[in-house]
Amino acid sequence: MSEIKNLQPAAIWRNFYALTQVPRPSGHLDKVQNFLLDFAKKAGVEAMKDPAGNIVMRKPATPGYENRKTVVLQSHMDMVPQKAPDSKHNFETDPIETYIEDGWVHAKGTTLGADNGLGVAAIMGIMEDKSLKHGPVEALITADEETGMFGANDLPKGELKADILMNLDSETWGKFVIGSAGGVDITASLEYKEMENDQEAAVKVTLQGLRGGHSGLEIHEGRANANKEMVRLVHKAVSTLGARLACWHGGNMRNAIPFKAEVVLALAKDKVKDLKKLVEEQRAAIEDEYKTIEKGVELFAEETEKPQYILPEEIQDNLIDAIYACHNGVLRMIPAYPNVVETSSNLAIIDINEGRADFKILARSAREDMKEYLATQLQCCFNMAGMKVECSASYGGWDPNPDSEVLKMLMQIYRDQNGEDAIVQVDHAGLECSIILGKYPNMDVVSFGPNIRSPHTAGERCEVASCEPFWKLLVKALEEVPNK
To answer: Average per-residue pLDDT in the chain?
Structure first.
């Protein structure tokens, strides 16, 4: 694992290795906050933890660069805790194990944390290097970005002094992002009184092996959603075999396409064989429908201990109908950027058990009116099932500024260093830039980063070759920041 410390640029990979040794799943950030404060102390730069849990660092200008505009480098400290089905990894206690294969850094059976650990590592490299030339530099390393952008949302006004924001949370090298989608968390819940199970047998059905993925960056690729595929099977089992739903667990992160779901169905003993046949037919259907996208589909049934309780039939039917009817995936592309998703939703988490049903969705849109439209559509869907619906952690989109001064500077540096033009793009993934701009509206903002693929999955990886030019561009950009 320590071999990644020997990669170039050393400033990034040495610090990224150190981050892999510090558990930092969203919601459990004490260790990484203390790690970053200790790092700043050793590097000799000012640092503090603000009331929102963000870490802010400040490095003074190099002599002669005091009149340059102040830059804030921004990344988030938390990582998505996803792992392979056979992994025993504990994200709250265990370090990330890494390896290098075909020029990419991977993790063993878990998310890598390159999203956004590589951005944090780059910031650490800037803060500790006394040889660099730059104006005043701030660092904003935010808390709990992946679960609701809480650190950015609670960022105190007046805390930052910067004129320019360089967000290091983009995941395609050679692309400068100047706009991103807004989002809103939608939670539908229902409490019900369980009923005694009068069925003779029970079967646990598991769907796993799907690719999953980032619900913003990869929502347009048509990857299977485990909850939406499972409901097709459950609906057929209920309607044709008289099966009854006892529990449902699918997905575990609101911003990750769910790759696994499992249900327990109660039914007559003489229907178990028919259910197993139905499961096999549905597995074949999923494999055929997704044959160019999903390669490791597993859908199987196994007899299990008979549960004591099941859902009341009317509640069961209403919830199944709501899951079936719930919009999932792309709703609309941006008319001006037809290759970029404008509006989408991800039916991320379903938990039905012990008298309570909870559905969790992340809806995204580059337009506030379409975000509201989609949120209302989902609310209506769940209201018809008698569920209580709440919207929370809403954030607006980041409106692009193609005339950005810092964008023009970065484009020129990229052209000089790489001999070609970079791409300017608006992303469907949610970035904290829009929230920070809401508090600091005069900042000039651009986002960029090295190549990271399959974030929010156990297949997450970073291309080593993209990190060297990313670092060179960042260092040169700080040197060429214009005067105030």
So the answer is: 96
Q: What is the pLDDT of residues 152-176, one digit of tens each?
A: 999 999 999 999 999 999 999 999 9
SS (H, E, C) 68-120: ECCEEEEEECCECCCECCCCCCCCCCCCCCEEEECCEEEECCECCCHHHHHHH
User: Is the CB of residue 289 less than 8 Å from the CB of residue 232?
Assistant: no
Q: Cβ neighbours of residue 375 under 8 Å, at least 6 residues apart? A: 184, 186, 363, 391
d(CA 377, CA 115): 31
What confidence category does residue 35 fall into, taking pLDDT thresholds of 50, 70 and 90?
A: very high
| Residues 54/120, Cβ–Cβ less than 8 Å | no
Domain limits of the chain?
4-180+398-480, 183-395
Q: In terms of Cα–Cα distance, which of 353, 140, 324 is closest to 235?
A: 324
Pick the CATH number of 183-395 from 2.40.50.140, 3.30.70.360, 1.10.490.10, 3.30.43.10: 3.30.70.360
pTM of the model: 0.84
Q: Does domain 4-180+398-480 have CATH number 3.30.420.10?
A: no
Active-site residue list: 78, 145
